[in-house]
Amino acid sequence: MKLFIPGPTNVHPDVLAKMATPMIGHRTPEASALQKSISDKLRKLMFTENKIVLSTSSGTGLMEGAIRSVTQKKAIVFSTGAFGRRWHELAKLNGIDADLYEAEPGHPVLPGIVDQYLKTGKYDSMAITHNETSTGVVNPIESIADVMQKYPKVVWMVDTVSSLGGVKIETDKLGIDVCISSSQKALALPPGLSLASISKKTEERLLKIGHRGFYLDLLTLCDYIDKRNYQYSCTPSLPHMFALNFQLDRIFKEGLENRFIRHIEIAEYTINWVNSFFKTFPMAGFESLTVTCVENTRKINVAELNKELQKRDMVLSNGYGALKDKTFRIGHMGEINIDDIIELTNAIEDILKLK
Known about the structure:
The chain is an alpha/beta fold and 355 residues long. The chain folds into two domains: 15-252, Aspartate Aminotransferase, domain 2, CATH 3.40.640.10; 255-352, Aspartate Aminotransferase, domain 1, CATH 3.90.1150. It contains 13 helices and 14 strands. The mean pLDDT is 97.
């Protein structure tokens, strides 16, 4: 079954096979070498010199750990959909004082809005989702980075769960303090592992605040990497790590620029196709490069469409939350190539008799 959903995504058989690698002790030199190898490769993928931490959790795990660990005064969360709002929910559930700005559905968070909130001086941390899978909106983090330079004391957290590995994210150039992602989206691994880069500014904040929790505490994760040679406070998912180490090699073999270009070409094809028969939900110019959110202008029955697609070993996704019946989504990240997406769109045209 080919998955054209926002995640989990298709996993190459060779990557799946690596998860069956015989176990090693997680406190052994071999485990340290494995985790150091992954960190070195992720630094290359993320364009950073910062420390890398891994967590056996979904991306939400490190999001929760991050906003709890780095916020001393108050956080501001900028949201373009359900996963952007999650940052705010996590803050509140952890007793962290936080405000929420929500963009109009389908619209991005613009740099001027970020500046408007940060210039109040009320916030020492800021969280935003780069690529919002519920709405297909990508936020202009390059322009937002220019604003963030004006506020060097604010720790900037970015959720790149559904973009890292498919979109070029120059972490250090942008000045992102905590860049979070996970395994099951554009990195094209099974779900269950999250990762983040941690800036020196963030590490200083962590030391100032102290420990907050244990399993997802960023200070604890950083401490163990430093003091236990790239090991972790709790037993990690070594199968995921074997697979990630191997998959990163596959990504570099494809070539980073080639991979980024492939995602751009597929996104452009999908967006153009959608606008020929439906309408993209995001504001023009802010469409995601890894998932296209389609406004259901023809009022098709998405569940019935999926039943027919599944007969052809394909599946896409309905809308998320309040957008369930108003939109549907086509994921095109990770292992998807242009022939795959053409096969899907041809099938949709045939099933719906589109002309």
